[in-house]
Write a structure and sequence with these properties.
There is one protein chain. It contains four helices and five strands, in the order H-E-E-E-E-E-H-H-H. With 133 residues, it is α+β, with helices and mostly antiparallel strands. It has one domain. Strand 2 and strand 3 form a beta hairpin.
Length: 133
Amino acid sequence: MGRFLPPDPSKGDERTIGGYMAVHARPAAFQGSDSVSYSVAIETDRTGDTARPYGAYFLFVRWRRLGAQGVEGHLETPFLAHGATAAEAGTALGAMPLEEVKAILDDLIRARDPEPSRKWWDVMRDEDEYRSK
């Protein structure tokens, strides 16, 4: 069960993804361009590159729209920031403004679900013409 925690603006700049998470003590959430709700986490991992040993990326969790509350899937980015430590890479990515994080989410959605070549109204018109023959 959730509980209300008042924001603490002394913990960061809530206009950035890392600051938002610190101020509100929870992950940020967005409505994607597909009208589905997503929560975002900053994740880190080893890169295998000795010059940039750690990378940070976003993991967007897609929430189920219908039925019982739960996770329906996820989207993730490649490494977007790097550092000598996992904490350094995570902090670097955490400085990204929320607007940029939302744009990245929408880009991932578009890459997953490209625009159809025909609009729904064109398909319906073609079906109406087919039925009238």
